[in-house]
Design goal:
single chain; 432 residues; mainly alpha; two-stranded antiparallel ribbon; 17 helices; 2 strands; 66% helix
């Protein structure tokens, strides 16, 4: 019976990830999004009913994020905003479900569930929107419209950059971690398809975030990686330089079109005035009220329908909704978790690709959140993965002891710590 409940829990999780990738226009949108949240809650409930939940006290990250949303819910209640209060309560329930899933032995298979759900989403995109995808990825420009940006399954191009940019890292993680050649090739193909969707959407913030994340990865591998990893890095760099030299003109022309660099509103001559203006307005709003500077306005109480303009930055949005103190603490949770994951991925002297890419996923969402407000969210597949990663990595960051090297920090005798992350847990058992 317990095995059946765990199986159903993982299936509900996969459905939550898949349904969360559909953005249907009209009144059905909220129903679909709430359906995805309900499926995620069902996955957490069945996992709890199945038993086997590790009894670990709240991590610092859980306490901070949970405390921030509880405080925001109370602020919204005091301010007489029932909708914001409801959103805060919903996130707390989702956080509780994520905490249960992160403490399961079956968490070792969560990354497999995410990959399969992403595969289903990519297949759905290619099956339902082949013409739109091909036109956008080719860089089609229409008169009076400009660049045709791809919206996979109705998702906004900016959000699709986060979702499928994160998907590219998820599949690349599996490409490096699996020893099987055919799985490596398939994962590499899926990663490339995810990147092509980001390009088709002309999601420039995500492309920039991926570039910065890749730069950090290269620096860390060159600094702390093994000789074999450094050699692979050098060979890859040489191959890229050769391709760039041979196809320099074609690559430059394609990037100019797909990045919309000549656009009067999005191009280089626009001066980035769009985001610069709303960032300035958002910062001024943060400092406009001394009380709200510390308390915030409540969850979803800083949307464009409330304050009159969109806040295209997670960090300004956190300050507006949770107050500067809690907003800063939430951001620091992500920064510290990413830094510890990346540093400890080289603890044995050889890069652990599962832990390394987990850290890079958090780095990616941190960079991407400068330009978009999706750092803490539950309505899309990658945000669900990031939430689970944040919790899982903080439940036990130390990798399992190596046979060649004793653990630097022995495990407490009375705590049943789970593996490092859902991906790293593959060492103990087989793993939005």
């Amino acid at each position: 019976m317990n095995a059946l409940l765990r199986f159903l829990s993982l299936w509900l999780l996969g459905l939550a990830i898949y349904v969360g990738g559909w953005y249907i226009e009209g009144p059905a949108f909220q129903a679909v999004q709430m359906g995805a949240v309900a499926l995620f809650l069902g996955a957490g409930f069945l996992a709890l009913m199945a038993g086997g939940t590790h009894r670990i006290e709240l991590s610092t990250a859980e306490a901070i994020v949970g405390g921030a949303f509880l405080f925001a819910m109370l602020v919204a209640f005091v301010r007489g905003n029932p909708m914001s209060t409801a959103f805060g309560a919903m996130f707390l329930v989702v956080l509780a479900a994520a905490a249960v899933l992160a403490r399961q032995d079956a968490a070792a298979r969560i990354d497999t569930v995410f990959r399969r759900a992403y595969i289903a989403l990519i297949v759905s995109v290619l099956a339902t929107q082949p013409a739109e995808y091909l036109a956008s990825v080719a860089g089609t420009v229409e008169y009076s419209i400009g660049l045709v940006r791809f919206a996979p399954l109705g998702m906004h191009p900016n959000l699709s950059g986060l979702v499928y940019g994160g998907g590219a890292l998820l599949f690349f993680q599996h490409c490096l971690a699996t020893p099987r050649v055919h799985q490596k090739l398939f994962a590499l193909l899926m990663s490339a398809l995810c990147l092509s969707i980001v390009l088709a959407a002309s999601a420039r913030a995500s492309l920039l975030a991926l570039g910065l994340t890749g730069t950090i990865a290269v620096v860390l591998i060159a600094w702390r990686g093994s000789r074999r990893a450094r050699m692979a890095l050098v060979l890859s760099a040489i191959a890229l330089l050769v391709v760039a030299a041979v196809k320099a003109g074609a690559i430059a022309d394609y990037l100019t079109v797909i990045l919309d660099l000549d656009s009067p509103t999005r191009g280089t001559e626009s001066g980035a005035t769009g985001r610069e203006v709303i960032w300035r307005e958002g910062i001024l709003l943060v400092f406009s009220d001394p009380l709200l500077f510390f308390t915030g306005r409540g969850v979803r109480a800083a949307g464009p329908e409330v304050i009159g303009f969109p806040v295209e930055s997670s960090y300004i949005n956190l300050a507006l909704e949770h107050g500067v103190v809690f907003g800063l603490l939430i951001a620091l949770c992500f920064v510290v978790t990413a830094w510890r994951a990346l540093s400890r991925s080289f603890a044995t002297g050889v890069m652990d690709p599962a832990l390394f890419l987990s850290g890079l996923m958090l780095v990616f969402v941190l960079f991407q959140s400068v330009f978009n407000r999706y750092l803490v969210a539950v309505g899309n597949p990658f945000s669900l993965l990031v939430l689970l990663l944040l919790l899982r990595l903080n439940l036990g960051l130390n990798p399992q002891p190596s046979r060649r090297r004793p653990a630097l920090h022995p495990r407490p005798a009375r705590r049943d710590l789970p593996p490092t992350s859902a991906a790293v847990a593959r060492h103990a058992a087989p793993q939005p």
